[in-house]
Amino acid sequence: MTRGALRVSNSTGATGAIRAGATGLIFVAPALVLYAAFVLWPLASSVYYSMTDWDGISQARWIGFANFERAFADKIHLASYLHVTLYILGTLVFEVSFGLFMAVLLNSDRPGFALLRALFFSPVVLSMSAAGVLWTFVFDYRTGIINASLKGIGLADWAQPWLSQPTTALLCVMLVSGWKFAGLYMILFFAALRRIPRHLYEAARLEGAGPVWSFFNITLPLLKQNVLVAVLLAVTGGFAGFDLFFTMTNGQPYNSTEVPATWIMKQAFDNDQLGYGIALTVILTGVVCLISLIYLRYAERSHVVEY
Amino acid sequence: MAKIEFDRVYKNYGDTPVLHDVTLSIESGELCVFVGPSGCGKSTLLRMVAGLETVSAGEIRLAGRRANELPPPERNVAMVFQTYALFPHMTVAQNMGFGLKIRGVPAAARTAKIADVAKALQLDGLLDRRPAQLSGGQRQRVAIGRAMLRDPDVYMFDEPLSNLDAALRIQTRLEIARLHQMTRRSMVYVTHDQIEAMTLADRIIVLNRGRVEQVGSPMELYDHPANIFVAGFIGSPKINLLEATVTEQGFAIGQVPLAAAGIGARLGAKVTLGIRPEHLAIARSESEATFVSDVALVERLGGETLVYAQSPVGGDLLILKVQGKTSLKPGERIPVVIEPEHLHFFDARGARLS
Amino acid sequence: MLPRTHALTRRAFSLLALGAAAWGSASLPTLAAPAEVRITHSMTGGAQKEAFDAIVAAFEAAHPDIKIKQIVYDDDLYSDTGLITQLKSSSPPEIYFQWAGAPTQRDAREGFAMDLSEALGAEGWKDSFIAPAFSQQMGVLNDGKPYLVPITLDVTNVIWYNKQIFKEAGIAPPANWAELIDLTKKLAGKGETPFVIGNQELWPLGNWASHIASRVVPPADYEAAFRLEKPFNTPDFEKALNLVDEIRLAGGFNKDIAGLGADPAMSTFFQGAAAMHPIGSWLVSSAAELAEKDFDYDEFNTPLIDPAHPLKDSVIGTLTGFAVSPKSRNPQQAITFLRFFTSPENQVKWAEAGSFSPVKGAMEKAKLDPKTKAMADLLNSAGSLVPPPDTTYPVEVAEAYYQAAAYVAGGEKSPKDALVWLDDRVKTMK
User: B160: closest CA among B170, B151, B150?
Assistant: First the structure.
């Protein structure tokens, strides 16, 4: 009897679940349609076009994996990943670390500090292209203020064509990127710093801890979540980096500042090889997805801090 | 062991004065409680001892040495915060031992010391946990353990019980009292709760609006409050305060004349009479009564009963503390008698009269 | 007409505009009469637009049964999305602006552009243009049939020089390559910057370097290399890049050649910070806007390199023109307009507005300012026209050659190494 009753309840449960599933499908259908139309379809068509020879205008011609074979033989394309990796490492130093440093430094209620924070933040609101153009003037070999200043203090020999040498161009882009975004990370970290109770620092101070100890043993561990977010922003933003490279160096000199985004733009739109450009985009998407997955696996394991 | 002295200490935040002219000394080994309403400056005073706040004027001396400019670690004080100030990313053991680590105590010695203190505080099973996995009481014990490992000259407690529930509060209070008995170190304890002050303190310093109102042992403060503020702040339930007029025989509450000697005010002066609830009693008959009053409310606490009755001069209800149980009901008329040997008189400015 | 719209300068920022443009063209009103002829182009203003508007007004007055409607896009937007969206729509405009070379040939293949053999063959219309306009290499033809009515000839590279600096150095425009190297050395020795080139986008030097190569490499080999039918790494191409290297060794190039933008480089020239600036004919109109009034400059063609070479006195340039959509409603009326527009009298007006008309006699009859006149003379004296590789051959191949030239000019690679690199680079392209 018990067994029979169990079986009955089981079978009604199963049909009930199917019925509930069908009803549920009706409710999610609009979202599914939108998702399919705006995410799945473009994704699928991108993958399709990545396997064609297509100039964006003529009929696309199916060529299988030829674009991908070409991509992995394209040395400038491969080098662009090295450059973007260097750039991201640079942004971690110039944007995230410097932003954190400034947040700690400017974390005070004393008069004037709010203004300093605002000044430091202000480049963030400037458009990327405007920043690029502005700094191109600063770095200019003949009329830029950097070389002018070096000449002014008697270091004329140090004046360089900053954006025209493979050794300095990428560094210059990193510096401008830092100037542009350190303020954003500063605000991000500043908000988190404000959440750390003052008593923690006081307790450490009474035990003889100095500011350096407190930074590495209190501030940094407690900002771990924010640092992880900042690193994710810097890494994914770095891969998407285009505007600064486009306005400052356009991938030059000698492709030394070529990053995936600039190279894709050149292939797809300058060289009218949309199929190849899309194949490069598919590769970039794969790389970013892979990095994000690795990152999420790591980030999920870290604890959320409660005070 | 350290004696703490305040010599004409002032503290301002910008143009806002926080402490005025504080002069007092805390003897070595004493448990001294700063008590007062919030904003009275008691925490600031404590933090000045720790070196977490600067001194605007005057001098603070530790063991006879000027300490104004002494960096906090050199003062050898330990502090227990209301919010515990535990590092959320460290284990209990790390939280307790980080000071030892900073001071370069070797790992083995550190572990042994932490184990000793943890055992004394019944934290021995919890050393690998993080603060978020502990109850409030356990967290506060970790904070106390950290202070103990500091082996300080002065323990400081900044409202350590405020974040705990009532039962834990009493238990932790007892632990602090035991710690004091065990170590005989100087302790400075800040609270806004006069019961904590009364139960723990060797000496209480009552602060109000940045000024010291009175310094004394709990019973001195209870029996001889220096002013209306202290009289009102110390004691629970609160002292009854009544308007009175000085007469030839003594004084009068409204139309009710009462005999008293040496009030120390001129004839006809308006004074404030203070009577603790246990010094008001219900007379056996109206003829023995000082005055007759209507019961407004009865609170039965078991061993004793609080009776709220109308004051003969109006204003706040009078509180009577009656031993044992009573069958009184609101609205009943009761004869009230004042025990004349326990009266406190305050002048118009609130200062105690003779 | 559109100086900076080489394939290499085209950028697509706004794919969104694609959608917007599609809406715009789809909702054009259709009127029964008069017949509407829509013309899409990227002249947003200036003297050329004024001249064009005047000719359109004259045409409408003469042909009351035809109404002209102009659909105007900004330069970059036009070449990225504006034009193609219209061509792919169900009612493409009757007339559209296009570059000769690869774009026109593509349009011919895709059926966007109409075969104009019949129209141009009638009443001697084709013969009213200068002969090189319909030469095979200039890209108006596809399979020998014309698909574009040429309207403007742009010289994409001559060497502009600062007359003041030349005068102070006591030098004159060179008659041959050796003289160019001599005067470069002389200028460098005086502490001047002989050449300023903003090669960030590669085409400014690339155009010149390919013009040099076209004068050194046998024409068939040159064409075959850019079509990837033969290698670049040949003694002839090496000789061409050696000439670029000679300029570098003479201290000819500005130090920041590799990273400088094309516009800042031109400004540098206008500011008198360099003696020479190799760039296209559009410098004239930029000078009017950007240079000081007393800035005195002139130009000379790339001097004689090899007297035995068939293209020894060539000029490098590109044609632009109007194509007709075969799928549009009124192609015949469109041809009527184009005949009107390319009539000698209208082309004189067109030339006076600053365009290099490919119609016979137009430049001679037009009242031109001295700079434009000098440029017209240079074109007239040219033995042949050579198109820039980026409008003629696969763009990625042209760009790879430009990059090789950039390596040499920057001293990063020897001419030989640059060609080895180039052949390796184009290996991945089909």
Answer: B170
